[in-house]
Each structure stands twice: as C-alpha cells, then as structure tokens.
Amino acid sequence: MFDSAQKPPTPNTEVLERASLVMALTAWETYVEDRVREEFKIRIRVVEGSYVGKFVASRLEDELKRFHNPTAAKTRKLFLDYLEVDVVEGWHWEHFDSARAQKTLDELIAKRGDAVHRSSVSVITPKQVPNLIKRDELEKAIRFLKCLVRATDAQLSHEKLLDIAAEPCMSASPNIHSRAAGAYNFHCSSRTCESFSPFMQTQFTAQRHLD
Question: Which residue, among 107, 106, 113, 121, has the nearest Cα to 15 in the 3D structure?
Fold first, then answer.
C-alpha cells in the first residue's frame, strides 16, 4: 500500500500513514492502562473485596478514565502513584537513554494529536497540509514503541524481583488500625505488604475524613 519513495505520496497514502500513527499510539495508551491494572490487582489482592481494596481500585479506574495522551510525564506519574515504580528509569536501550526516550514519546504523542485534528483538513485540501509522517518515520515510531513496551515490562519485572527477594507475605492478613485517624496501615515483614503509596495514602485519608 506504500509505494516506492520515487513516487510522491498520494492523499490516500498520507491518510493511511496518519491512521497508522494514531493506531500505534492508541495501542501504547491501551498497554499502559492494562499494565497498570494488571500489576495493581496483584499488589492489592491481600485487601481485595474489602473497603480499602474497593476504594483504591475505584480511584485507579477514575484515574484511567481521565488518562489521555500518555506522555512520559503522565505515564511516569501513573505508575508512581499506584505502583511506586518509576518506569522511565528503565527506558533505555541501544541508541536511547531515558531522556531521549521520553522526548521521543512526547513528540509522537503530539503528532498523534496533529494527525487527529488535521485529518479532515488534509483529506479536503491535501496540498495545503504537509505530510505529517513519512513511511520510514512511521516504521521507526512503531519500532520505538515496541522497545518502549519491552523496557517498561523489564522495569516492572525488576521491581517484582525486588519484592520476591524481600520474602513477600501476600498470604498474611492485614493489620488494620488507626481508624480514628482515618488511615489504614498494613504491617508485615516485607515491603510488598506495607502501606499504599504516599499518593494513595493521601487520597484514602482524605476520603475517610469526608465519610
């Protein structure tokens, strides 16, 4: 469907390239949301079904409903708030360090926004709108996103290994106290069953004061 580089891109080819970019970035957004849910479910299973478990799970779902345009900063904050993992620290591979990976992701997210907003204009008046992304750039973008997914998975796996090394006690029942203060703290011998992230503690304490 993509013709040789000797031929100028046709309007249909440009539409296809923009659509492919949008789909690739949408796949990244879906990956981030699913990955957070997956890891979060594992980490709160000790309180699953309880008031605390239901509360924090609902907070995550509310957050994901507002999670659009998954830039590096937004992605980092989401994983930090709910998993206490700084995923961007693991965004490095051949020819990329974390800073360059973050910058590249943000540029692609911006291009996705342009692709969505310019689609109707470029179809009607293709000569007035420059080609947003070329075939080789699209291929590089897709390769980059694949590497980004692998790097994110690797960073999360590293955190898992740290949890395992700390002798997790997921089967231990939580010791809930300080109800009068409006906070729930979970104590056991490993950090896997320790308190929620500072962000979630703040959110939960505020909610308890409102109840």
Answer: 121
For the chain, the domains span 11-168
Task: Round the average pLDDT of the chain to a whole number and report it.
Answer: 74
Name residues whose C-beta falls within 8 Å of residue 40's C-beta, 6 or more positions apart in sequence: 57, 60, 82, 83
Distance of CA 146 to the CA centre of its chain: 14
Query: What's the pLDDT tens digit per position in 6-56?
Result: 455 566 777 888 888 999 999 999 999 999 999 999 988 888 778 888 888
The token duo for 132 is 């947003």
3-state secondary structure 113-150: HHHHHHHHHHHHCHHHCCCCCCHHHHHHHHHHHHHHHH
DSSP characters over 47-78: GTTSHHHHHHHHHHHHHHHT--S--HHHHHHH
d(CA 46, CA 53): 8
CB 67 within 8 A of CB 184: no
Place of tokens 């980490």: 43
Instruction: Please give the average per-residue pLDDT across 52-80, as a whole number.
Output: 92
How many angstroms separate the Cα of 75 from the Cα of each of 85, 146, 185?
11, 16, 27
Read off the pLDDT of residues 122-169 as tens digits, 9 standing for 90 and up: 444 545 556 678 888 999 999 999 999 999 999 999 766 665 454 333
| Helix and strand numbers, DSSP H then E, in the chain | 6, 0
